[in-house]
Amino acid sequence: MVGCSHHSTPLAIRELISFSGEQVLAALAELRRRFADCEFVLLNTCNRVELYAGSQQSTGYPSLDQMVAFMTEFHSQPTESFGRHFLKLEDQDAIEHLFTVASSIDSIVVGESQIAAQVHDAYSQATKVGLTGPTMHAVFQHANQVVKRVTNETEIHRRRISVPSVAVSEIASEFFERFDDKQILVIGSGDMGVETLQYLKSAGASRVTIINRSLERAEKVAEQFSVTAASWDKLDPLLIESDLVVSTTGADQAIVTEARFRTIAAARKKGTLLILDLAVPRDFEASIVHFPGVYLYSVDDLQIVCDRNKSFREQQMPKAVRIVNEEVERLLGDVKHRSSTATIRALREQTDSIKQLELDRLLGKQVMQDCSAEMQTEIAQAFDRLTNKLLHSPLQSIREVAQTDQRDSLVSALRKLFQLR
Fold this sequence. Notes:
The chain is an alpha/beta fold. It has 16 helices and ten strands.
């Protein structure tokens, strides 16, 4: 694996070597042309660009430096100055890195859920164009198992850490048992407003209105989420009718002052009003919290919950890391076991072939024609016992060795000594 990520590479550099959707396909096609015997997966996200290579053969395989050169030259960037930003990993280290990435341990936000899907999509895309094989299938499919274990055996994904998610799932959910019967107003249709709408819809909200100074922008977002858009002059009437308000504008001063809200409060016939003010500076004057039945939370209040949840996720890290290490060992153990099993099978097949040739030659001699069938069977069984006893000790040594490197050495020696293909 070679790649750049948020850990060590400035955003300005990552932007220059990132791949668009069309560029990913073009890069994969070029890699297939250059290295026909190698498997590749190209992962490109907001925070990382990584190229994974694998092969069943020792020839036709690109070096780490060749992989870096491909990444930089594809974007017409100088390898000499950009190459130092690349992380380069091989074998077990590369597998461990992939598992930590897929399980979100390596993310900017520990426990983010999107990265697992992004890794899976990158693998699927490479598979569709024929660039994956036994190596990538084994490693990337095992990465899915790692994600499942980390998700099921830790709580690293279970507590919200973004302000909009905490606003809906932890604060609003404490006030309201359900959202489908609540009148909800979202003020502002920027990134924060859009993210808030995503969580509201997931929570079952259906009576949602979005309001923005630009009605066109509000209508565009409303269409995306199947909610209602309203013009800015409807703000006061909507506040009068709302049960929950989430405000996310970029205004440089409060859009609802205490004096303005006094008129709104006098016209309200509903009881509780929960206001989640996610804006900086605040959209609602802090003194509004003193009105009866009004509960006002600022972004600072929510950030405290976010930080607490983030700390909780980080406390889950040792469990997640332990799972990754266990799964790396399990995968490598499976690979080594398959390798040694193939060697043992090849040795047995070779030995059986030699044994049968010699047995056929012996029994084919004229002097053996007078032997009874029982005697010929006894001779064949003696050949079997002889070869089995000769093979027993070396094969048992391979099966019983615990250390992977020792097993590799024995298997390699066996192949060389007996000239096994």
